[in-house]
Amino acid sequence: MKPRRCSRSACSAAAVATLTYAYAESTAVLGPLSPYVEPHSYDLCGPHADRLTVPLGWAVVRLEAEASREGGREVAGDDLEALADAVREASRRAPEPPQGPPGSQGGPQAPPGGRRGHLRAVPSPS
Which parts of this chain are annotated as the region Disordered (predicted)? Predict the structure, then answer.
């Protein structure tokens, strides 16, 4: 079996991470190398995974290899996918911000704290 290579053009380094996008949530998910090649994901080498940037307003979720272990057992990809689906479902059920009467100026108001319900990555202490 041939080792997987970085998806970035002109890079032939071995892939160590997989990048997927959740366009509806404006989120990029970077995690350990997936066991299978997926058609809508990108395999990245270490340097390209570390230097990943996303468009302004997007969130990045970084799943570390150590974070994919739970209680000494490996968390299956299906478990991670189920978690992502649960987060998406919860965001769909979130109450809509109140809107003014028709014709009023101002439109939708921002939720408390002025932020929308996006996932945010917390940088690792290093």
Answer: 85-126
Q: Tell me how far apart the alpha carbons of residues 118 and 115 are, in angstroms, rounded to a whole number.
A: 8
Cα angle 9, 50, 113; round to 5: 120
Is residue 121 exposed (0-12), middle (13-18) or buried (19+ Cβ within 10 Å)?
middle
Q: How far apart are CA 123 and CA 24, in angstroms?
A: 23
- Report the alpha-carbon distance of residue 125 to residue 68 in Å, rounded: 18
For the chain, what are the domain ranges? 1-87
Q: Name which residue leads in pLDDT, 42 or 114.
A: 42
- Angstrom CA distances, 75 to 64, 71, 83, stand at 12, 9, 11
Which residues touch 51 (CB under 8 Å, ≥6 apart)? none
C-alpha distance across the termini of the chain, in Å: 35
